């Protein structure tokens, strides 16, 4: 029999989720947009999603390792700014396809490429309304 593991912070509507709530398997990834291992795992997760279909619910939570990845936090802000415009997964995938370049100008280019309102994106990046959410994701990954 499969072992069930409970998260310190259960999956909720605040999370970034792909797949139905009724899925038999829930996979929660704590990821860093600058981490090469997170990037590689993204392709593995996508292959598993194709194989399992509606049997899998995938959840992504931010876990920026700022001590070793100087662009990780700012890139997480960009993904959250995209989420505010309903384009989290588009930005998420675009970032990992272009992970080799994560400067501010690159993130602006990514935002344009996925069709974000650039004025709103710039405002969200400057004001960082998602800082608490990212910190909560990070803290939940430490427990």
List key phrases describing it.
143 residues; mainly alpha; 3-stranded mixed sheet; 12% strand
Q: Can you summarize this structure?
A:
The chain is mainly alpha-helical and 143 residues long.
Describe this structure in words.
Helix content is 50%, strand content 12%. It is mainly alpha-helical and 143 residues long. The chain has a 3-stranded mixed beta sheet.
Nearest-integer average pLDDT? 94
**Range of helix content:** 40-55%
Number of strands: 3
Helix tally equals 6
Beta-strand percentage range: 5-15%
**What does the overall shape look like?**
globular
Q: CATH first level: which class?
A: Alpha Beta
Question: How many strands, what sense, and barrel or not for the largest sheet?
Answer: 3 strands, mixed
Uncertain residue segments: none
SSE order: EEHEHHHHH
What's the CATH H-level superfamily name?
Glutaredoxin
- The assigned structural class equals mainly alpha
Order of strands, widest sheet: 1-3-2
Round the Cα radius of gyration to an integer and report it: 15 Å
Total domain modules: 1
Q: Compute the separation of the termini in Å.
A: 25 Å
CATH topology title: Glutaredoxin
| CATH architecture name | 3-Layer(aba) Sandwich
């Amino acid at each position: 029999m499969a072992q069930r593991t409970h998260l310190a912070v259960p999956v909720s509507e605040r999370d970034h989720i792909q797949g139905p709530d009724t899925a038999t398997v829930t996979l929660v990834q704590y990821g860093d947009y600058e981490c090469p291992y997170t990037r590689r795992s993204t392709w593995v997760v996508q292959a598993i999603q194709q194989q399992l279909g509606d049997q899998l619910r995938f959840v992504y939570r931010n876990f920026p390792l700022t001590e070793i990845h100087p662009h990780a936090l700012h890139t997480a802000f960009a993904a959250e700014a995209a989420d505010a415009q309903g384009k989290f997964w588009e930005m998420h995938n675009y970032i990992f396809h272009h992970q080799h370049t994560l400067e501010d100008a690159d993130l602006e280019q990514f935002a344009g490429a996925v069709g974000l309102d650039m004025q709103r994106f710039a405002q969200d990046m400057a004001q960082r309304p998602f800082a608490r959410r990212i910190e909560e994701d990070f803290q939940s990954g430490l427990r």
